[in-house]
Amino acid sequence: MKVDFSPGRALAVARKEIRHILRDPFTLALALGLPLVLVVFFGFAIDFDVRDITLVVRDSDKSRLSRQFADIFASSGYFRVVEPAPGSGVLRELDTARASGVLLIKPDFASRLAGGRTAQAQFVLDGADNTRASAILGYLPGILRAARSRLGQDAPAERITLSTRFLYNHELNTRWFVIPGLGVIVMGLLAIMLTALTVAREWENGSMELLLSTPVRPWEIILGKLAPYLALGLVGAVFIYLAARLGFGVPFRGSHLLYFLLCLLFLTASLAQGLLISVATRQQQLAMQLSIITGLLPSLLLSGFVFPIESMPAFFQYFTSILSQKWFMMISRGLFLQGSAALDLARPILGLSVIAAFLLAMAAKRFKRDLEP
Fold first, then answer.
1. Which of 89, 124, 205, 281 could lock 286 by a disulfide, CB 3.0 to 4.6 Å apart?
2. Tens digit of pLDDT for each residue in 96-140?
3. Could you tell me if 331 and 349 are in contact, meaning their C-beta atoms sit under 8 angstroms apart?
4. pLDDT on residue 165
5. d(C-alpha 262, C-alpha 328), whole Å
6. DSSP label at 29?
7. In what order do the strands lie in the sheet with 79-81?
8. What percent of the chain has a predicted confidence (pLDDT) above 90?
9. 76 CB burial (10 A radius; 0-12, 13-18, 19+)
10. Are 359 and 272 in contact (CB under 8 A)?
């Protein structure tokens, strides 16, 4: 069967699109400058580590050991000791949100330690924000270990010891986790927006009628329009990679060649999604709204960027499989932090390939050569 596809005609459409991009500084800035700006801006802003936790200390013992114990909280780098307001109870500071936690040290703190008994202190925490409270609770075991060491009260010898070690991100550095995922969100959203307007703009400007009067076929238009934006998106991916490595010190342990090949695959899926929106709507305003709705919210909430997919109900775990951002999120974090090989990433690569092929086929199928709405 003869395939009616001419690479020459597709190339002609691509050259036309390149000339349009070069005449449009907004598109160039959107494709090249905005990814870098967004990754740097939000990379500094998004930090899941909780610091500068205001802490009120009520030291009822007022001994050297009790003061050392309170100092350990302050010197941990997470807590900032504040004085309670005059005439106000320490727990009142939690009610007024002037403090996030209160450390209550019992009167016999030093004497119990000196007698070889267990000294007691209470840590009262504002639990209104359970996510923040959980993060703060995670700091306490380390502080207690430091207290036992500095106060000379090492725990009795244990017959069984359990040590914990974190692989791939030894310090649990939030930015190492956030930046590769943020790059996925930014690349995907901008790619969708870039192509969501391209066909719709041609329809609104009336130039699509001229294009349809030529022998060019839908597949040639789709691939011709996609190719220049693919090149732009890849340059944006390079900028994001450099910002992650040089700006935030995120390690990269995988194959660079594999990473950029999979960036091309992910960009193809995202650009195809934008083209499908553009072909289906034929209106720039509607295409922009749909690209934000389908490109921003699902990628932020359902891709695993913020919330673990494994924690979602079973329906949403399956539903997220239709999102290209989910698969590339796994790929990006696997290559940056875990040094995954292609075989390790076979499942997300397959999922991403299926989505890209489906969206391209749907965009070509939905492309109409007539002028009927």
1. 281
2. 777 888 888 888 888 887 777 778 888 888 776 666 777 788 888
3. yes
4. 62
5. 8
6. I
7. 79-81, 53-59, 101-105, 121-125
8. 15
9. middle
10. yes
For residues 347 and 342, what is the distance between their CA atoms, to the nearest angstrom? 10
Quickly tell me which residue has 């009262």 as its tokens: 124
Decide: 102 and 134 in contact? Cβ < 8 Å: no
- Which pair of tokens denotes residue 220? 């040639």
Residue with tokens 């390690």: 251
Report the half-sphere exposure of 67 (CA within 13 A, side-chain side).
Answer: 3
Determine the Cα angle at 207 with ends 201 and 210, to 5°. Answer: 150
Give me the long-range contacts of 95-98 (CB less than 8 A, separation at least 24): 97/126, 98/54
Question: What distance in Å separates the CA atoms of residue 331 and residue 181, rounded to the nearest whole number?
Answer: 10
| Most confidently modeled range among 14-18, 185-189, 364-368 | 185-189
Q: Over the stretch 35-86, which tens digit does the pLDDT of each residue have?
A: 778 778 777 766 677 778 888 888 888 888 888 888 888 888 888 888 877 7
Count of positions (residues) in the chain: 373
What is the spatial distance between Cα 319 and Cα 274, in angstroms, rounded to a whole number?
20
Span 151-171, average pLDDT: 57
Cα-Cα end-to-end distance for the chain: 31
- 73 contacts 81 by C-beta, under 8 angstroms: yes
List the one residue out of 196, 198, 201, 221 whose CA is nearest residue 368. 221
What phi and psi, each to the nearest 5 degrees, are found at residue 84? -70, 155
Q: Please count the other Cβ atoms lying within 10 Å of the Cβ belonging to residue 156.
A: 5
State pTM to two decimals: 0.73
